[in-house]
Amino acid sequence: VTNYFAPSRFNVTCDDFKYLTDHLHQNGICVILDWIPTHFKHYHFLHQCSMSLHEYDGTNLYASIASRWETIYCDFDKEETHRILFASAL
Question: Which contiguous run of DSSP H or E holds residue 15?
């Protein structure tokens, strides 16, 4: 996860995702989104440093410590983290 608000542009556009979801629904197939608000990637496999939540504004705004999955945990002690996660869930 590099962005909690939209699909990664490296995989699919928002319109592509909407089309796929609509097509699946029209054919009786449910879509389940896996929203994991605990950690996020700090890089993308195509780039060493991507536009992720890690250092989004040049600081360590939302991150805590690195996890064993090559991701960074969200820092739930920060009000900024609460705000962005609540906003992305709505």
Answer: helix 14-26
The SS3 assignment for 24 reads: helix
Mean pLDDT score of the chain:
76
Q: What pTM does this model have?
A: 0.57
Handedness of CA 14, 37, 24, 90 (dihedral sign): negative
- Written as six digits, the tokens of 85 are 């996660």
Is residue 13 within 8 A of residue 7, CB to CB? The reply is yes
Q: How many domains does the chain have?
A: 1
**What is the distance between the alpha carbons of residues 30 and 22, in angstroms, rounded to a whole number?**
10
Cβ atoms of residues 60 and 32 within 8 Å: no
Q: Which of 42, 35, 34, 27 is nearest to 72 (CA)?
A: 42
Are 22 and 30 in contact, with CB atoms under 8 Å apart? no
Residue 3: inside a domain: no
